What we know:
- The chain is mainly β.
- The chain is 0% helix and 54% strand.
- Strands 2, 4, 5, 6, 9, 10 and 11 form a seven-stranded mixed beta sheet that branches. The protein has a four-stranded antiparallel beta sheet with strand order 1-3-8-7, with no helix packed on it.
- A hairpin with a 4-residue loop joins β7 and β8.
- It starts with a strand and ends with a strand.
Amino acid sequence: QVQLVESGGGLVQPGGSLRLSCAFSGSVFSRYVMGWYRQAPGKQRELVASITGGGSTNYADFVKGRFTISRDNVKKTVYLQMNNLKPEDTAVYYCNANIGVRGYWGQGTQVTVSS
């Protein structure tokens, strides 16, 4: 059974930075495509970034150049470095692990960007 635990959220001023972490428990972490999603109040959950076991990345247009996803296959952890944060980045950020048709979600971590 896969479990995902996010951490690193919080309150930050516009232009600030945060780094989210997602700890994976289970086996064969390197086979999973890991992703970060976010959901703002009243909006649908949307993909922020994803990374394959080999390190190939994919980003939503609204975070390109500001966010960086990475993973450590030894530590079984995926990260999301978020720079130049904007108020519209405020949301609950969720970690996702996907392999084939199976997907798992973490409980989410709140990111609030406000002055």
